[in-house]
Amino acid sequence: MKVTQALISVSEKRGTVDFARALHQLGVKLLSTGGTAKLLRDAGLPVTDVSDYTGFPEMLDGRVKTLHPKVHGGILGRRDLAEHRQTMERHDIPAIDLVVVNLYPFRETVAKPGCTLEDAIENIDIGGPTMVRAAAKNHGNEQGGVGIVTDPEDYGQIIEELQSNDGALSYRTRFELAKKAFTHTARYDSAIANWLTGLDADNKPGPFPDALQLAFDKVETLRYGENPHQQAAFYRETVAVPGSIASYRQLQGKELSYNNIADADAAWECVKAFDAAAGLATCVIVKHANPCGVALGASASEAYRKAFSTDPTSAFGGIIAFNCAIDQAAAEAVAGQFAEVIIAPEITEEARAVFAAKQNLRVLIVPLGHPGGKCAGAFDYKRVGGGLLVQSADEARIAQSDIKVVSKRVPTEAEMRDLLFAWNVAKYVKSNAIVYCKDGMTVGVGAGQMSRVDSARIAAIKAENAKLTVKGSVVASDAFFPFRDGLDVLAQAGATAVIQPGGSVRDAEVIAAADEQGVAMVFTGFRHFRH
Ligand SMILES: NC(=O)c1ncn([C@@H]2O[C@H](COP(=O)(O)O)[C@@H](O)[C@H]2O)c1NC=O
């Protein structure tokens, strides 16, 4: 069925004139609301104002423009039912076969600083979503129906189809457009509900709405979940989070698995915490969501070699992330081990050629986002049985000036550099986290233990297994030592300096233990639990 008449009513006017012109050239009659009609008329296109069409003026400050039976009857009447066609004829309601609508910019309005409740309310579109939903509902069947266009990005494709299909839209296209349209209005209403139910007693917007609506788009269905008997898919936030793993571009390799994506996220978040602009490359190797090696280097290959040496056994099948370009030397070094995924903001042509020889290796490019790479303002979500925990991301960072020395001995300059490095790593290690470091690399990582003392012992054992020594190293503990026992394990293993939050009721006992053993100890004042 040929499209004979289109109703165009858009707030976002990008591409509208060209689209309307192409429709006109296809013989489609144009019907439009105030601002849109003016835009088209000024461009020399013949257009009928909806108010002339219905015989009713746009009124009540634009709150009522298209809400009229002549508009909605033209959209909602079924083309395949004789009775509907007769009713439309009897009431002089011509069919409207194409509806082109995008809505008042609610999200953009409330994002403006100082947006009042009144501004927000006036930017809730009523007539637009009504037309979008009506047209989407009546997308019809093979006998005919309405096309609903909500995204200016689709204009080109719609025109191409009309041109090649004798001025008609296929049922398949109308159905796909309808799905997109219902998603569009659902998200529009979600944004309104999130904002309104997030207002506090003074009508100031807050971060946690009473009713939380989340919006994600499917990137792909995955082969399986954490285990082969689980189904899985990967979704990306509708409003892109710059610098996040979800913005990956895969250069080569097998399809990503559920665990690949989870571990790639852990590796990427950790490596981004180190600013490449500070002049050193960073490499992070992750296994089962924990870093098993993190290191700084003068080059990417040096950073990789150091990170690998922390725990070569665990690094097998790991996810390897860099905060800088991977060059040929780094690619050749990495290619020497079995890895699941390689991630970097940039990969040189020479390095790509090296990876290309390993067909299955998954290689991802992820833009760093802003300096230091943080996804500012993003929330963390954690599913629990029957609920969702929501928190702001752990964006706390420490500078040397924030650190309080609590021991008699003050850390040396080299110890202080390593302490800051170790603290940065500990944030990405599952609690209880104990991280031994020396010369800008991890030498032992204790992760995910129920006891901090066990974590301290395990990290030292792992260092020994990797033929590294923790003697003369520094240690970060993600949370305070509840007793002196944990500190004693570190000191006896040969650590010379410790960074930890402090704040235990037994801090005095722990400080005394450090002083007894000549260990320099500093407090950060905040912890980095990670579960
Ligand atoms: N009230 C109505 O009947 C109505 N009909 C269409 N609109 C919206 O008015 C906007 C276009 O207006 P204009 O063509 O005047 O620039 C579109 O975002 C459209 O969704 C309406 N506005 C709000 O509810």
UniProtKB/TrEMBL annotation:
Gene3D superfamilies: 3.40.140.20, Methylglyoxal synthase-like domain (3.40.50.1380). One of its GO terms (biological process) is 'de novo' IMP biosynthetic process. Its EC number is 2.1.2.3, 3.5.4.10. Pathway: Purine metabolism; IMP biosynthesis via de novo pathway; 5-formamido-1-(5-phospho-D-ribosyl)imidazole-4-carboxamide from 5-amino-1-(5-phospho-D-ribosyl)imidazole-4-carboxamide (10-formyl THF route): step 1/1; Purine metabolism; IMP biosynthesis via de novo pathway; IMP from 5-formamido-1-(5-phospho-D-ribosyl)imidazole-4-carboxamide: step 1/1. SUPFAM superfamilies: Cytidine deaminase-like, Methylglyoxal synthase-like. GO terms for molecular function: IMP cyclohydrolase activity; phosphoribosylaminoimidazolecarboxamide formyltransferase activity. Keywords: Hydrolase, Multifunctional enzyme, Purine biosynthesis, Transferase. One of its GO terms (cellular component) is cytosol. It catalyses: IMP + H2O = 5-formamido-1-(5-phospho-D-ribosyl)imidazole-4-carboxamide; (6R)-10-formyltetrahydrofolate + 5-amino-1-(5-phospho-beta-D-ribosyl)imidazole-4-carboxamide = 5-formamido-1-(5-phospho-D-ribosyl)imidazole-4-carboxamide + (6S)-5,6,7,8-tetrahydrofolate. Pfam families: AICARFT_IMPCHas, MGS. Belongs to the PurH family. The IMP cyclohydrolase activity resides in the N-terminal region. This is Bifunctional purine biosynthesis protein PurH. It comes from Denitratisoma oestradiolicum. The lineage of its organism: Bacteria, Pseudomonadati, Pseudomonadota, Betaproteobacteria, Nitrosomonadales.
